[in-house]
Amino acid sequence: MHSDTRAPLGLKLSAIGGLIFLLAPIALIFVYAFTTEEKSFQWPPPGLTTKWIGVTLGRADVWEALGLSLKVAAISTTLALIMGTLTAAAVARSRFFGRETISLLVILPIALPGIITGISLRSAFSLLDIPFSTWTIVLGHATFCIVIVYNNAVARFRRTSGALIDAAMDLGADGVQTFTLVILPNIATALLAGGMLAFALSFDEVIVTTFTAGNQTTLPIWMLEELVRPRQRPVTNVVAMAVVLVTVLPILAAYYLTRDGEHTAGSDK
């Protein structure tokens, strides 16, 4: 006798309604990226055209903002991978006084409102007479990128059996060999997923960037300024469409990389 596991019709309709509510505004961005109307948002669009993609590609200010965003995201992700992995290894594989406090302090930045982080960083930079630069943006983004990598890495470290490391050491492997041949293969997908998520979050971050960028303009800040003082509205939508693709694809890749994370070598020992 088999039980009916099909979802009730009301639950299905609720799920569909929720998805429409979440995705319809994003779909509008894609539609308005191809509208023939330049100065306002009309529904339905009076016509469709691809000319705004060419216009966007010809805008130097878009390329400058994109370059800065990619640079900041790449550096922030690299720092997060190094510091997040080392911190996760220390917390997951060692026992010492204050370990849980350190873990809490590491994840605190992502729990705090972004405006609090931004104000605190701006105050610190002003107090230390640090001029605004690419590195001030990187430091701001690294505060939450480290958390993303840390959470992925520490979970994978805890699922990796310590017996594997002990066995490698017993067989004569030194610390570097143990890390590269035993530990890294087991945590590689978690690090890759954490790095992709960190890159996506850094690439489209606005609030912390507003307080740490000074006169510099990342792509999300450029979009915000264009909405306030629009020159060509569809160009903003073309850029927004690109940002959606750049951020969604790493998130989807991270999901597929980590969904089988429970099958870590030695995790059932």
TrEMBL record:
- UniProt keywords, alphabetically: Cell membrane, Membrane, Transmembrane, Transmembrane helix, Transport
**Alphabetical list of PROSITE patterns matching this protein:** ABC_TM1
Q: What is its main location?
A: membrane
The reply to whether Membrane figures as a keyword in the UniProt entry is yes
Its name, as the record gives it, is ABC transporter permease
Q: Where in the cell is it found?
A: Cell membrane
Q: Which residues form the ABC transmembrane type-1 domain?
A: 66-256
Report the domain of life of the source organism. Answer: Bacteria
Q: What CDD domains does the database record attribute to this sequence?
A: TM_PBP2
Lineage of the source organism?
A: Bacteria, Pseudomonadati, Pseudomonadota, Alphaproteobacteria, Rhodobacterales
The organism of origin for this protein: Antarcticimicrobium luteum
TM annotation in the entry: 12-34, 72-92, 104-124, 130-150, 179-200, 206-224, 236-257
The way it spans or sits in the membrane comes to:
Multi-pass membrane protein
GO terms (BP aspect): transmembrane transport
GO CC entries: plasma membrane
Family statement: Belongs to the binding-protein-dependent transport system permease family. CysTW subfamily.
What InterPro entries would the database entry show? Bact_Polyamine_Transport (IPR051789), MetI-like (IPR000515), MetI-like_sf (IPR035906)
